[in-house]
Amino acid sequence: MIRVGVNGYGTIGKRVADAIRAQPDMKLTGVAKTRPNYEAEAAVRKGYPLYAAIPERSDQFTDAGIDLAGEVEDLIIASDVIVDATPSGVGEANCELYETYDTPAILQGGESADAVDTSFVARANYDKAEGADIVRVVSCNTTGLSRLLAPLQEEYGVEKARVTLIRRGGDPGQVDRGPINDILPDPVTVPSHHGPDVKTIYPDVDIDTVGVKVPATLMHLHSVNVTLASQPTVAEVRQLLSDESRLFLVPEVAGIDGTGKLKEFAMDTGRPRGDLWENCIWDESIAVEGNDLYLFQSIHQEADVVPENIDAIRALTGRETQEDSMAITDDRLGVGLESLFDGPRRRVVPHSADD
Ligand SMILES: NC(=O)C1=CN([C@@H]2O[C@H](COP(=O)(O)OP(=O)(O)OC[C@H]3O[C@@H](n4cnc5c(N)ncnc54)[C@H](O)[C@@H]3O)[C@@H](O)[C@H]2O)C=CC1
Ligand SMILES: O=C(OP(=O)(O)O)[C@H](O)COP(=O)(O)O
Asked: What pathway is it annotated to (predicted)?
């Protein structure tokens, strides 16, 4: 069993902790929290050992009636791997602590690519993480773009990608973010940071991106144009993308016209927190004009990096191949939604730790 601790139990950390618990080859050693808030209560109810991320605040937990298993250093010592899901910049600062205890760590997309041994997307560069000390699971947008480019690059070759990212202003729980009533070029500089971030995964891909921020919280939306090195038909592209477990082609029959209905659909299927681990590509949007492919895809920013963290744990420890790790992760989480509209219905929600 791989013993995994989660340091930083917020939007991403709590989802990764649940995903670890669903894996047959992993044991969640515990989670580190800074304060005894509603998320700490939930962790206790789930039976997750709780550690004080900031030792000086341990008394706050005791005063709140929450028993601590120890301090963050105890969690690090008890773990083979740490998933750091602290706010942007904190993960990089924590690396010294991880190195002190010779415990490899997985950081998230808010950290700098320069701070890690490798950036990571399971479908794109799984093997690069083996034996690394610090791995970065790239941000939700970079994950979504890299997952899409992988089959296109392998099957047809990518000459140039141009993507407009319509970015949600903040997560639903981030009430201090916006915009409330505006549409912002964000970043106003062109190209945006997303293209260079994809190049930390695919150094040779020619990609330019621009970003816009809108008053929305549920998901991001990408308007994608990829100039291919050959001229596939729409049907060929559709088949190629639907063969990818983490690309969900939203069928016309579903009547899903936007991110609101996508999230409603996810909740209706029983997904925990209404999470969508897959890229959601509008099937009707797939178009080919000569060498140019066009499509829309939506990315659930709170969720698509979760299976990537699980695969990064295995990749780092070198215990499974890319194909086997992704298959285990997908099966245990219930990744893959096509079966709800086509073929034998199968499970699309996580296994429990017991089954
Ligand atoms: N929320 C999103 O849409 C996505 C976030 N990310 C990245 O994931 C990372 C975490 O982001 P979120 O989960 O959204 O943040 P969050 O703010 O929801 O959660 C961070 C958690 O870390 C805790 N924390 C703060 N300082 C800490 C410390 N010193 N030690 C331990 N815990 C500490 C906070 O109390 C909070 O519970 C960031 O790098 C972010 O860029 C990546 C993809 C999507
Ligand atoms: O959108 C994201 O990052 P990105 O747009 O910089 O790739 C992630 O969801 C993190 O978002 P945030 O940095 O706006 O919280």
From this structure: Carbohydrate degradation; glycolysis; pyruvate from D-glyceraldehyde 3-phosphate: step 1/5
Cα radius of gyration (the chain): 20
Answer whether residue 97 is part of any domain.
yes
Tell me, what's the pLDDT at 351? 85
The pLDDT score that the predictor gives to residue 353 is 65
Is 164 found in the same domain as 271?
yes
The range of the structural domain enclosing residue 91 comes to 2-138+306-332
Residues 145 and 235 in one domain: yes
**Sequence-ordered strand ranges (E) for 12-124:** 26-33, 50-52, 70-71, 81-84, 105-107, 118-120
9 Cβ closer than 6 Å to some ligand 1 atom: yes
199 located within any domain: yes
pLDDT at 98: 98
Ligand 1 contact via 171 beta carbon (within 6 Å): yes
Catalytic residue at 140? yes
- Out of 7, 86, 90, give the residue to mutate to test ligand 1, the one with the largest number of ligand atoms within 8 Å of its CB: 86
Last residue within a domain, chosen from 288, 304, 320: 304
**What is the pLDDT, as a whole number, of residue 354?**
67
The CATH code of the domain that includes 256 is 3.30.360.10
Same domain, 146 and 293: yes
DSSP-assigned letters across all residues of 199-220 = HTT-TT--EEEEEEEES--S-E
Is the CB–ligand 1 distance for residue 11 below 6 Å? Answer: yes
pLDDT, position 193: 97
Is 66 assigned a ligand-binding role in the annotation?
Answer: no
Residue ranges of the chain whose pLDDT lies below 70 = 344-345, 353-355
Q: Given the cut 0.85, state whether the ipTM is greater than it.
A: yes
